[in-house]
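User:
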Amino acid sequence: MAQPCAPWLLAANWKMNMDHLQTLEFIRELSVLLPRGEGEGGGAEMAIFPPFTSLRTAQVFSASYGVPLSLGAQDVSPHSSGAFTGEVSASMLERLGCRYVLVGHSESRKNHHETKEELVGKAKNSIASRMTPILCVGEKEKGGEGIGEACRQAEEVFCDLSPEERAKVIVSYEPVWAIGSSTTASPERISDAACALKADLLEKFGASPRILYGGSVNEGNIESLKGLGLGGFLVGRASLRISF
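Assistant: Predicted structure:
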C-alpha cells in the first residue's frame, strides 16, 4: 500500500531543455524566492527532472543554495550495466542523488519504441537502487476507450512486479492528446481516471499508488485541478518558467 499522508508532489519534467549553466541560473533564482532552510513549504515536495547532463549541477547547487529540491531522472536503462552505449543505469542515477525516475513517458514510448519488458526492467532497477519510479500512462485519443487504455498500461507493468515493488510505484495519468498542447483534461476526466486507476490496481494487484496528473498543467489552471484525489502533478513546459 502507498504510504498515507505522503507530501503533495510537484514534479517538473524539463525534457530536453536547460543545459548545466541554465540549470545553475534557474536554481540561483529559485533560491531567492525560497528562503534557505525553509524546507518543504506548504506540505509540498518539489522535484526537478533535468537532462542527464544537468543532474550533477542540480545536485550540487541546490544543496549549496539551500533550495529544497528533490532530483529525478527523465529515463533509466532497463539494464544494470554492460555494453549498452548511451544508456544510464539506475545505480548511476542513485549516486547522483536522484530520488525519482520517469518510466514510460509517452514521448519515450513513442520515440524509443519501449516494450513492456523494458518498462518492467526500468521500474525494477529503479526500485532496487532505492528510487521511486513514476510510471506514466495515458490514452492517445480523446475518444475511444480512453481511461481503459491508461489502466491497461499500468497493469502490464504492475503484473510483473512483486507486492513490495508495487507499493513503491507512483502512477502519473498523462493523456497523450493533452501533452504539449493548450488543452488540459477536464477536472471530471482527471478525477474519473484517478479513481479508475486506483480501483483497478487495488482490485487486481492489491496496490494503491499515488496518482499524479500531467498534460498542459500551468500556473493558470493548476488551482482548478487541486482537490481531485491526486497526489500532485507532473508539469512539463510550464516548469521551465521560474515564476510557475
